[in-house]
Amino acid sequence: MKSLVIGQSTQVTVFLLSQRVPETIVFPSTLTMVGRVSDYEIDVIKFKTMKVSLQTKKAGKVIKIKGNRFQNNLRVSTKKSFDRFPFMRQKKTPSVNKMHDITTSYLNFNGTLTSDCSNIYTGEMDEYDMIRADRIRKVMFPEFSMDSGFEDHDDMNEIPTTSLVAQLGTPALYLKDSVIELLCLRDGVEVTTKAIPELIALLTDRDPDVVNRAAHMVYLLSREEKFIATLATNQKLIKALLDAAAGTEDGNTKRETAAAISHISDHKEGRMHIFRSGGIPELVRMLTWPIEQVVHYAVTTLHNLLLFLESSKQEILACGGLEALTPHLRSSNVKLQALVADSIYFLVLDRPYTKQLFLSLQGPVALIDILKTPTNYTKLYATVIRVIRSISTCPLTKTALIQLDALETLHFHLVKTSIDVKRQLAILNGMRNLSDVATSLDNLKTLIIDLLSLIETSFNEEIVACASGILSNLTCNNVNNKHTVCATGGVKLLSQILNRFPNIEDVTEPVLCTLRHCTARHSLAVEAQKEIRLSGAFPIILSLLATRRAPIVKAALGLLRNCALLQENLQSMLNEVTEDGENIVGIAVEVLSRSGIQLRMDFTSMEDGVSQMEMVEGSVSALHQLATNHDVAIFLLESPQIMSLLSDLVSMEQINNNDDDLMMRELMGLFYQLSKSPEGARIVERIGPMRVFRDALKSRHKSVSTYAYGVLKNIEIEAGDYQNYRNYEQNSMSSSMIPPPAPGSDFSGWAHDGLEPELFNEMYHSSSITDIKHENNTTNSWFDTDL
């Protein structure tokens, strides 16, 4: 043996893998071994980079080798590492059975090895790889024969002939055979088809362990794209999976069956087989399992069914799916929350009773809490907002959401800079649904300003339509919101929007309604009426009115009626003519004639969602203000058809005895204007229903009785009954009168709205409009032109 002396008289034996005899290696620099040098021996050197294995008696000890330009740490391993290499066991080193080896990283020495050593070592490593493969193959599948080209080794003869899989039990042999087929056959579809019958039998086995292993195999197959399509077409396999899931309490089995079913539900045929196999009840039961993965797979499957299979929705509801899903909105898993929210959306969509059920389950509270909780998973917000948009059509849910500050929460998400158009639309739709019950909120100034800004900068007609709809609802009967719109230039902006989207009814109708609201009953109403004229909006408003579309006609007539309260506006709009030569008076008379005839035939008739009653109200109200112009009054008096229709309408029992006095008030107001002239008074006396006028003197609505008195006074008929009734009313109600409003209040802005000044003073027996009082007027309908 040749030796190399390192350090102080320390011998280190060196073996080359390519030889069976030691050889002395001359190192280019001094090699220092830290620790007890006598405990170590260099055992293996791997070609030029020299992988060094050191033997030590101290297993687990870490040593260091230091040399010129290198330093490595060596971790001590056990003796078993030698057993992996047959050629290493052939070495006859005296201490091999007692010592342990340490394998280092590659150490770069400047010494050289011959190329023959390198080639021989590489060959031995290839031999080792083949031997290892043969050993594993023989252990797992002894009957699986393959000619490896190598002779059996002595140590391999000791391997038992019975495979490990076979020892698991006789039923598991079928599973092993299926695995062998998967290894031997190339066609994945053919493999899966042949394996499925065996898997079905194993899934129905009485042994839970067998069922568990079979479920695991189906789960693995379902993860492969080339196998899943075949699995999804086999209804028996799906039924076996569902039965296995229903019949086990083992968490692993439940999880893997749920996972396989979830993967199968990604395919159309798989979804149909799940539904037809009665899978929905079991999926709903899975939602109550404490294992989150099981719940997640169940929710995913139900979501796929809801998304693609319409008939599944009713069955999921019948099985208590909504009740089982709602608690998972509180999950800490945001992806699960998103799936649950989207599933709930499909269940509550167009189903009023499920929306009420969802409300009773405190679902809206969970949704708002989610929106108030920061998260980077923006898809969760999108799905929750979509659910809110759906449930916000339910009156009871609307009220609950408003109480939960839903409008403010949605506003917070609306102004985010990173929001996309689709989610922006969903938010706006939800806010529009809620806004009609938010008229009593007085803290929405910022929201209104942001909506106006959005309308101004956006050219997306859907966004403008939704934002305008919200403004229309918020400005109805809310003085503060009207004031905010007018004070921030909203009237001028909305007038421009009419010209920007003249043919988009979803935009023009809410814009007209908002302008109608802002031109009445608040301190800036007169300024708003002037702004309409100064913005040059009358031509486009008249053009829209000429379309005869019921929603547009209702809104446009109301707006023009409010603007006509100013004489400058009245003269301007009377001079406007459309391209077809139509004017506002002619259109209003036509609407009254057509809708009035329909109303006489059927008092409940509708047109495009607008009742004929509302159409008649709008046209009569507009003509009431337009008739302050002498030429308009003469035109109406000289139209026997119109006068006869007005007489019939005021005589209708459904109108003169209606709890809502708006129609009767406007009819009596029109008769009052027409009877102001001597000729008009004679025509009204000859054609008008005098009995109705006399009965109206005792109307419980003071505006109606006041107009009746004015009409009778104009035609010089004694109205003593009216005076007696008014004196009695004043005496009997004086104790219940509301205190007069404070000076400077907004009452001054709407007190004369539609009620002529001379009749206003007559009605309240006062020269000051600040003394206005309202007795027994719970609806405020007589002065409320917003409705």
Outline the structure in words:
Helix 29 (550-563) runs parallel beside helix 32 (612-626). Among the domains are: 5-120, no CATH class; 162-319, Leucine-rich Repeat Variant, CATH 1.25.10.10. The chain has 42 helices and 10 strands. The longest helix is centred in the N-terminal third of the chain and has 26 residues, at 115-140. The strands form 3 sheets. It has a 6-stranded antiparallel beta sheet with strand order 3-6-7-8-5-4. Strands 1-2 form a two-stranded antiparallel sheet. The chain has a two-stranded antiparallel sheet with strand order 9-10. With 787 residues, it is mainly alpha-helical.
Major sheet strand order: 3-6-7-8-5-4
Strand content: 5-15%
- The CATH architecture of the domain at 162-319 comes to Alpha Horseshoe
- Shape designation: elongated
Q: Mean pLDDT, nearest integer?
A: 78
- Helix coverage percent: 55-70%
| CATH fold description of the domain at 162-319 | Leucine-rich Repeat Variant
**What is the SS-derived class?**
mainly alpha
The CATH superfamily name of the domain at 162-319 is Leucine-rich Repeat Variant
Provide the gyration radius in Å: 45 Å
H/I helix tally: 42
Terminal residue distance: 113 Å
Number of strands: 10
What is the level 1 CATH name of the domain at 162-319? Answer: Mainly Alpha
Largest beta-sheet details: 6 strands, antiparallel
Low confidence ranges = 1-118, 732-753, 764-787
InterPro entries: ARM-like, ARM-type_fold, Armadillo, Beta-catenin
Keywords: Developmental protein
GO molecular function, one term: cadherin binding
ARM repeats: 278-305, 446-489, 536-578
